[in-house]
Design brief:
The complex is a heterodimer of chains A (205) and B (122). With 205 residues, chain A is an alpha+beta fold. Chain A has helices at 8-22, 30-44, 46-57, 62-70, 108-116, 124-139, 147-161, 169-184, 190-202, and strands spanning 75-77, 86-88, 94-97, 103-105. Helix content of chain B is 33%, strand content 16%.
């Protein structure tokens, strides 16, 4: 058994996926959970997978998980002109916390610049649709408590799409379902739904 | 399985001291049982940090003092027969408590639990 100081990184990484992709998605299937469990076993071993499963089952908040497992692994990024302190965690997310402790997400300009560097794998039409969809989600009336998470999932969807033919279709579908499901449930997010519908056709759903 | 030995656990993993003290007391009160759900421990030991307690329990698993046993809880709340070493090997259907019908496991909850030998918990 690894000593306590050696645990956080592996378990923290193992937990990122269920928290961001599965637990927030009420329609996640048993197959998706099994796929995650097997993936954690393959990457970190059964012990870590069982601990991660127990932590998810115990409804321990993402904040607690971050505090316990991931906090020490955060690396400051100083390349965000939007003024938010952005941190890159082991799972590759791009979230920030402003001076009041409120969760913030990347500025649309930064998102767009980052996306434009992926010209080889995402064509211009899809890039435009992605930026429009993300912008409309940002401007929508989604509850402030939920919006950063939705945007974060959208950014992860973007990252997966940037992999081109190497993208994991299951991951894309899972992330899409979560984003689309969350946005569609908000009455005041009609424009965001419309932009997602447009994107949907372009990325082959 | 190895006997549950909280003195050994405390010596090897003093960082979980609070959990060992609470778990020692719980096991001393419930030594006749041979299985406990994670949710039961979480409810019984509310004062403990949940993450710490889970790590402590799984340390006992790693030390061979507990055996992890995933089980299926039917939509009506019954624990169905059958222990599973991992959640992804649970079959699509399991018989209900009186074996009168099959319960679809993908419509049920999978719960973590832990099993120990009767003599080990004394």
């Amino acid at each position: 058994m690894p000593r306590k100081p050696d645990l956080p990184k592996a378990i923290g990484e193992a937990l990122i996926d269920p928290y961001r992709r599965l637990r927030m998605n009420p329609s996640a299937t048993r197959e998706q959970w099994n796929e995650w469990y097997q993936g954690v076993v393959d990457k970190f071993g059964k012990w870590t997978a069982d601990v991660a499963w127990a932590i998810v089952e115990a409804h321990i908040s993402q904040q607690q998980v971050n505090n316990y497992f991931i906090g020490d692994n955060q690396v400051p990024q100083n390349n965000n002109p939007g003024g938010t302190n952005v941190t890159q965690t082991a799972g590759g997310n791009m979230m920030g916390v402003n001076a009041t402790g409120e969760q913030k997400f990347r500025d649309i300009t930064v998102y767009s610049q980052d996306l434009n560097q992926s010209g080889a794998t995402i064509n211009a039409e899809v890039r435009t649709a992605l930026v429009e969809a993300r912008d409309s989600i940002e401007k929508s009336e989604i509850d402030p408590a939920m919006k950063p998470m939705v945007v974060e999932q959208f950014d992860k969807l973007t990252e997966e799409l940037k992999k081109g033919e190497k993208k994991n279709a299951g991951v894309v579908t899972g992330l899409w379902n979560m984003v689309y499901g969350a946005v569609k449930a908000v009455p005041g997010a009609v424009a965001a739904v419309a932009s997602l519908e447009k994107l949907k056709g372009l990325i082959g759903f | 399985m190895s006997p549950i030995n909280f003195d050994l656990l405390q010596a090897e993993y003093p960082e979980y001291a609070a959990s060992w003290a609470a778990l020692r007391e719980w096991f001393s009160r419930n030594w006749r049982k041979r299985y406990v759900e994670l949710s039961v421990l979480l409810r019984s030991l509310r004062k403990l940090d949940k993450v710490e307690m889970i790590l402590a329990i799984h340390t006992m698993v790693e030390m061979g003092m507990l055996k992890i046993a995933y089980r299926v809880k039917s939509p009506s709340g019954d624990l169905l027969e059958g222990d599973f070493d991992r959640p992804d090997v649970i079959p699509p259907e399991l018989p209900n408590r009186d074996s009168s019908e099959l319960v679809k496991t993908d419509e049920s909850d999978i719960v973590s639990g832990y099993r120990w030998e009767l003599a080990d918990a004394a």
